[in-house]
Amino acid sequence: MGTQGIEMPNKLRIQYANLRKQKGEDGKDELVYDTRRGRAVIPNRIYGGKVIENVCQALARIVIGEQLLRIAKKYKVVMTVHDAIGCIAPEAEADEAMRFVEESMKVRPTWALDLPLDCEGGYAKSYGEC
C-alpha cells in the first residue's frame, strides 16, 4: 500500500480509494473516490468540509480508543457510541467505577496535551436507564 492519505497521530491514515477528478453533473471538475455498496463500486464526491469532518471523527476515534483501552484494563467495555463508552462493573463498585471511567475519559493523549476534555456519565442496570 502506498503512503497516500492523511496521516493521523497514531500513524494510521485516512485514505480515499481511487481518488480522482471527474466531471460533475454541472460539467465542473470535482474530486471523487470509490465506495462500495454491496458489490457495486460507486464514486463518492469529496470536498473540504467532508475531509474536515473525516479528520475530526478519526481524531475523536483515536482519543476514545485510547480511553477505552485504559478502562478495559479494569472493567469490561461492552459498547461505544460516538464519544461514549458503556461498560459493566459490579453493582457494589458503581460509584468507584463511575469515578474511574470519568477520570479515564478526561485523560488527554500524549499528542494533544492541551486538548480540552470533559465528560459526564451515569450508571444504571441498562444503557437505556442511564
Short characterization:
The protein is an alpha+beta fold and 130 residues long. 28% of the residues lie in helices and 27% in strands. A hairpin with a 2-residue loop joins strand 6 (76-81) and strand 7.
Rg from Cα: 20 Å
**Average pLDDT over all residues:** 91
Task: Report the total helices.
Answer: 2
What oligomeric state do the depicted chains represent?
A: single chain
Q: Which spans of ≥5 residues are poorly predicted at pLDDT below 50?
A: none
Main sheet properties: 3 strands, antiparallel
Give a verbal description of the structure.
- The chain is α+β, with helices and mostly antiparallel strands.
- It has two domains: 6-46, no CATH class; 65-129.
- The chain is 28% helix and 27% strand.
- It has helices spanning 48-72, 94-105; strands spanning 6-7, 13-14, 20-23, 29-37, 40-46, 76-81, 84-88.
- It has a three-stranded antiparallel sheet. Strands 1-2 form a two-stranded antiparallel ribbon.
- Strand 6 and strand 7 (84-88) form a beta hairpin.
- Helix 1 (48-72) packs across helix 2 (94-105).
- The longest helix is centred in the middle third of the chain and has 25 residues, at 48-72.
- It is elongated.
- It starts with 5 loop residues before the first strand and ends in a 25-residue tail after the last helix.
- 6% of the residues are buried.
- The mean pLDDT is 91.
